[in-house]
Design goal:
With about 170 residues, the protein is mainly α. About 55% of the residues lie in helices and about 5% in strands. α4 (about 60-70) packs across α7.
Amino acid sequence: MGLSETEREHLRCILQQYEEDPRVLEMDNYIQHGCVTTYQHCWNVARVSFWINRRFHVGADERALAVGALLHDFYLYDWHCEGRFQHCSGLRTLFKMHGFIHPLLARENAERCFALTPKVGNIIRSHMWPLTLFHAPSCREAVIVCIADKYCAVLEAMYRNRQKAICA
């Protein structure tokens, strides 16, 4: 699964302003799956999303798709740290755990840092569906990123000893 050089260049052009932003680059300080950083994971998801859209002729808005994919995990913390949500107890603890809460935190961070369209906001907020049951994808771009995120997460976890992700 790979993009042509022309497709890679088009994706880089769309994401250039984000790729150079120090707040986005901060994602490279956090591990996502195995030894893959959050920044690398988000780029993997962006490439796979772009590939799905192009190869299956989905007709998605490529700008919204790429930006939403790159910022979908823009939560900016190490989710592996134990005790991050110890202030809650019982069922509340479950729903405050990273898997449930990070799409909201990522969207809030992205909204503070960048002018997001509602479509990009939905992509970020709904990428963990169906885990985030009440925040379902409402556009084709969000569905693509949701699928691409799960695909990349599985490969990154399976090949956790490799320095470079193999999914894109």
